[in-house]
Amino acid sequence: MYQAPTPVPTPPPAPTDIVVPGAVAQLLPDGTAAAPADAPPQVQQAIFAANKIQDKPYRYGGGHAKVEDKGYDCSGTVSYALLGGGETLGLEGPLDSGSFMSWGEAGAGQWITIYTNPGHAYAVIAGLRLDTSIGSSPRGADRKLAAQHKKAMDRGPRWRPWERSSRGFKKRHPVGF
Fold it and tell me: Where is composition skewed (Basic and acidic residues) in this entry (predicted)?
């Protein structure tokens, strides 16, 4: 008597919309971020949007001609997150890093800060850095974070659990955030 093989269940996709208590986003083992419960919904949505591109490669110009792309560059990554947060974050379409220099309001925001210069842009959203580059090699306690979060060492749009120097960057933020 023929017995069909037992199908192997496929694991469900990693959830991208996890919320944690408090006001600071948390990096999860799979490389996505959990949004803080105290953050406004637009900030949470920006985090959830950025989670969707965590496995995408770096691609120069990626995310500019079309928002849904095969890969993303630095400003395409920042644009994707902001567009995912909705219209109230004030972005109507993808911007390049030079255009971010005059976008929004000057200075650090309460929830979202864009660090930009003519050649690079990255964001800190609810205390967690969204960047396509590692920045500098992690040192000290940041090395432990890098060891725990190996995806953060990959090139491309990734959440990075350590800070980077902001020297040479302008700080901008969405109005009200």
Answer: 140-166
pLDDT in tens, the chain (177 residues): 555 555 545 444 446 699 999 999 999 999 999 999 999 999 999 999 999 999 999 999 999 999 999 999 999 999 999 999 999 999 999 999 999 999 999 999 999 999 999 999 999 999 999 999 987 666 665 566 666 666 767 789 999 988 899 999 999 999 999
In a domain? residue 41: yes
The length of the chain is: 177
Residue 114 DSSP one-character state = E
The count of structural domains within the chain is: 1
Establish if 173 belongs to a structural domain: no
Is residue 14 assigned to a domain? Answer: no
Please count the other Cβ atoms lying within 10 Å of the Cβ belonging to residue 45.
Answer: 21
The crossing angle, in degrees rounded to 10, of helices 41-51 and 74-84 is: 130
Q: Look-up: residue for tokens 């090699």?
A: 137
